[in-house]
């Protein structure tokens, strides 16, 4: 028995599936549904970086001190 590559396995799986159609329904009827295509916002809101909404990631080891301390930003990730 030989192993399949990821591409071969994906092809076998997808060949057994039939695509479903899409429909347009009111937003209020969308609970527990899946989008049929990606949607993209026309504008970023807010129009500026907002750390209180965007947040920061910290390692737990860097927050072990009880007293307030300064932290150095080491990387900024955009989208």
Short key terms for the protein model shown above:
single chain; 79 residues; mainly alpha
Describe this protein's structure.
The protein is mostly helical. The protein has two helices and no strands. The two termini are 43 Å apart.
Taken from the alpha-carbon principal axes, the silhouette is: flat
Biggest pleated sheet: none
N- to C-terminal distance:
43 Å
Helices and strands: which structural class? mainly alpha
Cα gyration radius (Å): 23 Å
Order of H and E elements: HH
Helix content: 10-25%
List low-confidence stretches.
Answer: none
Number of helices: 2
What's this model, at a glance?
The protein has 79 residues and is mainly α. Helices cover 18% and strands 0% of the residues.
